[in-house]
Amino acid sequence: MRDESYLISGTRPSQPKGKGAQVLLNWIYYLSISLVSAKRHPNSAPMQYIVPFAMFSTRRQEEIVTIKWSNLDKEGSRILVRDMKHPGQKIGNDVWCDLPPEAMRILSVIPRHEGDDRIFPYTTDAVGAAFTRACKFLQIEDFRFHDLRHEGTSWLFEQGLSIPRVAAVTGHRSWTSLKRYTHMRQTGNRFTDWPWLARLAPLSDT
Fold first, then answer.
1. Which residues are catalytic?
2. Span 153-200, pLDDT tens digits
3. Does residue 102 contact residue 84 with C-beta atoms inside 8 Å?
4. What are 8-34's pLDDT values in tens digits?
5. Three-state secondary structure along the chain?
6. What Rg do the C-alpha atoms of the chain give, in angstroms?
7. Directed axis angle between helix 124-137 and helix 47-57, to 10°?
8. pTM for the complete prediction?
9. How far apart, in whole angstroms, are the C-alpha atoms of residue 192 and residue 100?
10. Which of 125, 29, 49, 119 is nearest to 82 (CA)?
């Protein structure tokens, strides 16, 4: 069954300034408001959580649908990514990756699925199809799901994080591929105080 929940309203919201991830994230905030009372197919991928988590955690699409609750270290704010993609090794390349506070905040509101230890128990095809439809509907061109990883990496460097600290999040073994980001200006966290995060993952009062 096709997930067309993003078409519930029948209209496209006013497009914010920015392209790619920023447009998608603004759309997520719109979704969190418009779908409160809408019926959603239980098997459809919750893109309003998957998209921001993908960016903040810099996790690849295939990693997102395989990471497990049992491999989440809440106290250490990190996740064990098993068989992480690597040119020289994949099977057995299990890597602990740090999770920024924004990624941990999103995980704090994700419900567990009985009988499935995966955090996001969906297929890559389902996630990919939903992402493609959303981009098409929002008229975002030349933007792939993997671009969220690049966007997240840029976001980390914009905050002034060092290459080792960014690599601890992305899981890069070699820092060479991260050097292309080091020219970026340190502009701080551009997603601070964005209303959609507070709506999707409200902070606990305790």
1. 60, 90, 146, 149, 172, 181
2. 999 999 999 999 999 999 998 888 888 887 788 888 888 877 777 778
3. no
4. 333 443 333 345 666 666 666 555 444
5. CCCCHHHCCCCCCCCCCCCCHHHHHHHHHHHHHHCCCCCCCCCCCCHHHHHHHHHHHCCCHHHHCCCEHHHEECCCCEEEECCCCCCCCCCCCCEEEECCHHHHHHHCCCCCECCECECCCCCHHHHHHHHHHHHHHCCCCCCCCCHHHHHHHHHHHHCCCCHHHHHHHHCCCCCHHHHHHCCCCCCCCCCCCCHHHHHHCCCCCC
6. 17
7. 100
8. 0.81
9. 13
10. 119
Q: Taking each helix axis from N to C terminus, what angle separates 47-57 and 21-34, rounded to the nearest 10 degrees?
A: 150
Structure tokens at 70: 């049992």
Phi then psi dihedrals of residue 121, to 5 deg: -80, 65
User: Which tokens belong to 139?
Assistant: 């008229």
